[in-house]
Amino acid sequence: MGEILLQNLSLLDPAAGALLPGREVLIRDDMVALVRHGPITAPAAQAIDLGGRVVMPGLIDCHVHVTAALVNLWAMDSMMPSLVTASAGAILRGMILRGYTSVRDAGGADLGVKVALERGLFTGPRLFISGHAISETGGHGDFRARVFHGEPCSCGRLLSSIGRIADGVDAVRAAVRDEIRLGADQIKIMASGSVGSPTDRLTYLAYSKPELEAFTDEAARHETYVMAHAYTAAAIRRCVEAGVRSIEHGNLVDAEVADLMAERGVFLVPTLVAFETLANHGRDLGFPAEAFPKIQHVLEVGTRSLEIARRAGVKIAIGSDLLGELHRFQTREFTIRSQALPAAEILRSATTIGAELLQMCGRLGVIAPGAFADLLVVDGDPLADIAVLVGEGERLAAIMKGGQWVKNTLAP
Asked: In CATH, which of 2.30.40.10, 2.60.40.420, 1.10.3720.10, 4.10.520.10 is domain 3-58+365-408?
């Protein structure tokens, strides 16, 4: 791919929360080769003058569902797999054009989608897959209606491959092993009730302690980790004590459990935009009516979970958790978080903290030698106004992933 030299820019350093003027960045193939204050001599490189714009690392969304083609998940059972896959391609393209150069799928995407991205058949972010999210019978992930008395299908798949059911320590271990066989980068489990499932309450505690420990033990033996859907403080505590690496949602966390999370190095991935958009648009798009009292409950606590986690020193990553027609609101998570957090902290959540959660420190979330050349050229300063990252990428003059331009309005 050769060399690209980026000149006349200010470099956004998320770790320091600062703009570094007068930098130049040399890209060699798919990596950052050199960052320097002052000129870089690279006569063979294609030089691009960025006109004083801000260059920052690509964004990382640690909770997406790229195969969730519809808000009405129940209708996806009648979608052909080929249509689901085609829809995923469009969803992924939208994500990278919003500036997300890496995303972690929380249930649904399989190895084929990841390979399609790697081969250039789809345009989209780097994808870290969980395969099927694993649920107990009757938990979030078991979407059978109460009138249905049969067993889940023998392959364990529900909702066009978003989830599977496993009960008991042996079945849990087998499910983890199978998802890793199928290519999962990490394991996603449903450890509490949810707003979107028909037969559980938010306060339900899913899986026994031995089952939770089996998940984390099996994942660790395969050199990966567990991410857990959990809302309440009680559910979160059980996950943390069992060795889970990241808590998804976590709206009802309390100070005591947040302290435990910080002590154990457990990440929090709030997904506040999901509840706001479901409350505003979900009824019209077929989300079940019985979910809305639960949605209202988690909306009422608003940004409280962010404030509690921040005070405790918990590492907070960015997540969106949007479905189908609502993916266009992905960057509104920044707007919601700005009600409680300064821009510098939000940017760390979307870059360096996300990279740490993905176990990609030094490779993602930074612009430094040895990192992947995943970067954004921004019209404006996100540290001064996080809103320049909100929308459909209108303020992104250029987007690079792996040393290749996905969008470029600047180069000749």
From this structure: 2.30.40.10
